[in-house]
């Protein structure tokens, strides 16, 4: 098999894996933020609902009205933002990107070296991985800037720590 082609495929799969790693980490970061927002909206909403119910039984009309208005506002915000769904979509995207990243790494580190594949099969696999990545990019929710910046920072920190461990 053409050694130059293998090296080229290794470089491209490494580049793809890195790009996908950033996407996966970014989606997990976005999911974490939306889960926190869901808690910050959901817990007060539940507490207000319980308090409004108690105040209605105690015939505290003004308090019941005030709590009901606040409850309506929080419920509207929760419905409009739908943080639970956004957290779930980002988490699912992160998982899908990780699965693809792992498949690419397995192909590069094991199959490409130990499996008798012809050049056409190798090129086809690379195109398939690229297509899968493109599909994920098209169907995943947009990555917020804060989530990407945190992913970038976390990955750089991880790589530095890994390099330091290897040097010790």
Fill in the keyword field for this structure.
168 residues; mainly alpha; 5 helices; 90% helix; elongated
Topology:
Blueprint: H1 3-57, H2 61-81, H3 83-114, H4 119-139, H5 145-167
Helix pairs in contact: 1-2, 1-3, 1-4, 1-5, 3-4
Report on this model:
With 168 residues, this protein is an all-alpha fold. The chain has one domain. Helices cover 90% and strands 0% of the residues. Helix 1 (3-57) runs antiparallel to helix 2 (61-81) and helix 1 runs antiparallel to helix 3. The protein is elongated, with a radius of gyration of 24 Å. The mean pLDDT is 93.
- What general form does the structure show? elongated
Q: Give the mean pLDDT.
A: 93
Proportion of residues in helical segments: over 70%
Distance between the termini: 37 Å
Brief account:
The protein is mainly alpha-helical and 168 residues long. It contains 5 helices and no strands.
């Amino acid at each position: 098999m053409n050694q130059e082609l293998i090296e080229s495929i290794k470089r491209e799969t490494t580049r793809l894996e890195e790009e996908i790693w950033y996407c996966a980490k970014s989606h997990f970061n976005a999911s974490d933020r939306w889960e926190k927002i869901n808690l910050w909206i959901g817990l007060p909403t539940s507490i207000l609902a319980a308090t409004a119910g108690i105040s209605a039984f105690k015939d505290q009309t003004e308090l019941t009205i005030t709590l009901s208005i606040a409850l309506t506002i929080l419920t509207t915000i929760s419905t409009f933002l739908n943080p639970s769904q956004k957290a779930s979509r980002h988490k699912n995207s992160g998982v899908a990107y990780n699965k693809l990243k792992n498949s690419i790494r397995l192909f590069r580190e094991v199959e490409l070296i130990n499996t008798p594949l012809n050049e056409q099969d190798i090129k086809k696999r690379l195109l398939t991985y690229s297509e899968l990545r493109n599909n994920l990019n098209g169907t995943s929710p947009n990555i917020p800037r804060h989530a990407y910046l945190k992913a970038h920072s976390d990955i750089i920190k991880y790589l530095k720590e890994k390099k330091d461990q290897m040097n010790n």
